[in-house]
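Could you help me review a protein record that somebody else here produced? What it holds is a sequence and that sequence's fold in token form. I need someone to confirm that the token line plausibly describes how this chain folds. Take the sequence as given and treat only the tokens as open to question. This is what I was given:
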Amino acid sequence: MERPPRRNRRDEPREKSEYEEIVLKVKRCCKVVKGGKRFNFSALVTVGNKKGRVGYGHGKAKEVPFAVEKAIKAAKRNLFDIPIKDTTIPHRVEGKYGASRVIVRPACKGTGIIAGSAMRSVLELAGVENVLAKVLGSTNPMNVVRATVVALLKLKTKKEIEELRGVNAV
């Protein structure tokens, strides 16, 4: 009697998701032991649906694909919504994390995403099409992504500000 071949989780195709992902950084860490070198990998991933929902994740594993997979799962757990006005953000915001500081400003149609690579991927996957952004201080991708998230979480719509202040602007 013949046994069916064992199927591994790696052999199965991943289900199609509404979210797109961008791998921002893969780092390799080496530990020297008696028998040689042991490598560990960490991955930083951004996930978004290009409709105002975005998140980031960090994963570590002994192999790159598993680190990326863990980072994607972490990013999907950390999704949040941002308000988008036309194709840009409602107002200027600043975010700070560690030694990284970011400034994100709205831009008119046709400008595109003018930002550094780590910040660009977060804004792109969030669905922002026109924006001016600048990274000040450290350009470490992890801190830049976190500072960008801090800035995006500060965004408020006109309606939210009206409710907060208890006024009705025209």
User: Anything to note?
Assistant: The helical segments are 64-77, 117-126, 141-153, 158-165. The chain has two domains: 20-77, 82-161. The two ends are 79 Å apart (CA to CA). The longest strand covers residues 20-33.
